Amino acid sequence: MLLHSNPHIALLMLTPLLALGAAARADCPRTAAQTEGPYFKKNSPLKDDFRPDAPTEDWTHLIVRGRVVGTDCLPLADAKLDFWHADELGEYDNETYRMRGHLFSNACGEYYLDTVVPGLYPGRTRHIHVKLTSSSGLVLTTQLYFPDEERNKNDGLYRQDLEMAIEKSDENWDGVFEFVMNLKGNAADCRSSGDMNCDGALDFTDIDGFVMALLGETEYREQYRGCAWLNGDMDRDGDVDFDDIDPFVACLIDGGCE
Ligand code: FE
Question: How far is the CA of 68 from the centre of ligand 1 (A)?
Fold first, then answer.
């Protein structure tokens, strides 16, 4: 979305939003731990795209993304997320590292995995395994589930609070999950720079991205792949919302934030 090529008019368009407020977030309850099951394999490669691992061409693109935060809802940077799941045929690769890999949350606690929708295998509903290790060494092993799956009601491990929020489109399934580890957030380096297009500076070219970030993380991510959505979290409450407009505009007028 191109907001407006004239920065002054673009700013004026932001002004009505200034009057609106948003509630602060409550404490974040920790994510439930689950068994790692029989198929965990140590030493997975650093990998954030499992699609090349798919054994067939008949798969659906799945995005798994979100944040790692502490129970104070503040981001946890540099957490390791080790994912493994069945391929589109419902099979685990226990010989090599297909559909296995780890990545790290960024300076704002965000993570992003491209993979394929895992197939079903006997005895379980659809799920993804993940083992998180915080930079301080705390481990959280759990599983993520999919809403509206027929088998959810018959799977003894399934928990609704471990469901991703999934949006299905013609292109992909977009899954969002926020992991809460039993720690305080550590993301001191998440500077909420307001640099929404990741060009290293806060200026009028960031207004479009900021407005998109206000509309939602998904919309922002699609346009600004690799940029941290929380760059727009100017008041550092863990969310990009209307409370961030005033500080964003102030930094913009000052030509940057310290
Ligand atoms: Fe499994």
Answer: 22
Distance 85 CA to ligand 1 centre (A): 6
Q: Which residue has the tokens 């083992």?
A: 131
Residue-wise pLDDT for 44-82, tens only, equals 999 999 999 999 999 999 999 999 999 988 889 999 999
Q: What is the value of pTM for the model shown? A: 0.72
For the chain, the residue count is 258
CA of 3 to the centre of ligand 1 (A): 45
CA dist 65 and 220 (Å) reads 13
Distances from the Cα of 9 to the Cα of 4, 5, 68, angstroms: 7, 8, 37
pLDDT value for 192: 72
| CA-closest candidate to residue 188, choices 145, 241, 236 | 236
Ligand 1 centre from 158 Cα, in Å? 11
Q: How far is CA 252 from CA 43, 82, 90, 248, 256, in A?
A: 44, 38, 50, 6, 6
For all residues of the chain together, what is the average pLDDT?
A: 88
Please give the distance, rounded to the nearest whole angstrom, from the Cα atom of residue 210 to the centre of ligand 1: 39
8 Cα to the center of ligand 1, angstroms: 54
Q: How many angstroms separate the Cα of 202 from the Cα of each of 16, 106, 206, 258?
A: 22, 20, 6, 11
